[in-house]
Amino acid sequence: MVQGLGAELVMGNTRTRVFHTPGHTPESICLVVTDLRRGPEPWFVLTGDTLLSGAVGRPDLPGQERKNAATLYDSIQPKLLTLLETLEIYSAHFGGSACGAGLSGKPSSTLGFEKRYNPLLSMDRETFIEALSVSMPKPADLERVVRFNRGEESRRCRA
What we know:
The protein is α+β, with helices and mostly antiparallel strands. It has a single domain (5-158), classed as Metallo-beta-lactamase, Chain A. It is built from five helices and eight strands, in the order E-E-E-E-E-E-H-E-E-H-H-H-H. It has helices at 65-80, 111-117, 125-132, 142-149, 152-158, and strands at residues 5-11, 14-20, 29-35, 44-48, 51-52, 55-56, 88-91, 108-110. The chain has a six-stranded mixed beta sheet. It has a two-stranded antiparallel sheet with strand order 5-6. Helix 1 (65-80) crosses helix 3 (125-132). It is globular.
């Protein structure tokens, strides 16, 4: 069994396995989707902000970037990189987003392509942590997004 494997959601011919993949945020998850009409093997994975085309999610936005980078490495290596290389990857962001450095402009990829060409995925743990601990400019609206995600912004709008 893969560490961090959560529930399997069954929706007709579709099976979705939930992986807890903290690092970008403590709540991050990835969804591995299988369509039984296509075959028994997983078809694609929704990686959110964990694994991006050409990059990985930023560990610095919630603070404690070194600790979060280590957690992100521990999420990616044993959970995602052990999946089939033919899996299509759909992440939450691609080129032009402030959520990662070195993002590809391509909105999707495959796990095999990323394992071969994403330099972060071939790094050992300490090198990965160092690479992700460099200072990146914060998005201009970060504080507003954090307030909104905590429900503070929406409460203020109702008041």
